[in-house]
Amino acid sequence: MRAEIEVKEVTQTVKTGFFSKETQTIYSVYPHLTFTNEEKAALSKSQLWERVAHVHHAQLTPREMELAGGDNTISYTITHFAQPNFAVTFLDAREANDFAELLEKKILPTIKSYVSATTPSGKRVVDL
Known about the structure:
Elements: E1 2-15, E2 21-34, H1 37-45, E3 52-57, H2 62-67, E4 73-77, H3 78-82, E5 88-90, H4 93-117
């Protein structure tokens, strides 16, 4: 498995009222994952594509919370991370960089461990 983590800054115009607009900067984190054919086969064989790799707790306004039914969690599966244009977007550069670091240090190693665990090889020696 190979991963490239890209953080992009995008400025967009958001309609805030009937005649008013506001410029807003957002930060998107793109985890570009490339799996080998063997890894893809292992994920498919063990039906791991839909396994949750990360649960994100979004910071929502009270109105957004109401629209979301009171739930601020988003579950991301291995399939999500494997999609070519998948991104997680933030309103703050620090949060985007924190998520990129979380990807590198925790989420991607977790995905890799799922793949590695499906193909047992070698022997284990345990001294107790």
